[in-house]
Specification:
The protein has 122 residues and is mainly alpha-helical. α1 runs antiparallel to α2. It has five helices and no strands. Helices cover 62% and strands 0% of the residues. It is elongated, with a radius of gyration of 19 Å.
C-alpha cells in the first residue's frame, strides 16, 4: 500500500469521526491540507519503505517555505497518520521521525509604569 492510499483511508476515517461529532470538521480540513503536502513529498512510497531519511529530506525541502512551528506540527500530523497505520495493521512499526527545532521566543513584558501608561491611553 502506498502512502497516498493509506492517507486517503486515514482521511476517510477522520471524516467519519467528524460526521459523528468526535472531532471538529475544521480539524479534518486542516489535516487534509497537511497530508496533501506530505503526499507531494512521499506519496509514491510504499508504507513499508518510508524511513526517517525520507521525512528528513522532505522537512529540509519544506523548511524554506514553512515556519518551524508549522513544520513541527506537520510532522506531528504525519505521526498521527503513521500511528493509525500501525493500529490498523497496515504498517508493522512507525518509522522514527525527525524533531523539528522550534525556537523559543519570549517577549519582554512592559514595566508596570509602561503598562499603566498604555492602559490610561486607551
Amino acid at each position: 500500500m502506498t502512502f497516498t492510499e493509506a492517507a486517503a483511508a486515514w482521511l476517510a476515517y477522520r471524516a467519519q469521526l467528524a460526521e459523528l461529532g468526535s472531532i471538529a470538521a475544521g480539524t479534518v480540513r486542516y489535516q487534509r491540507k497537511i497530508i496533501a503536502m506530505w503526499d507531494v513529498q512521499i506519496g509514491t512510497l510504499e508504507l513499508v519503505q518510508i524511513r526517517k531519511s525520507h521525512v528528513d529530506l522532505a522537512v529540509a525541502r519544506l523548511r524554506a517555505a514553512r515556519a518551524p512551528v508549522t513544520l513541527a506540527n506537520d510532522v506531528a500530523v504525519l505521526a498521527q497518520l503513521l500511528n493509525w497505520c500501525v493500529d490498523e495493521q497496515l504498517l508493522e512499526a512507525r518509522p522514527r521521525l525527525p524533531t523539528v527545532p522550534v525556537p523559543s521566543i519570549e517577549l519582554e513584558l512592559p514595566s508596570d509604569a509602561a503598562f499603566a501608561f498604555m492602559l490610561a491611553a486607551v
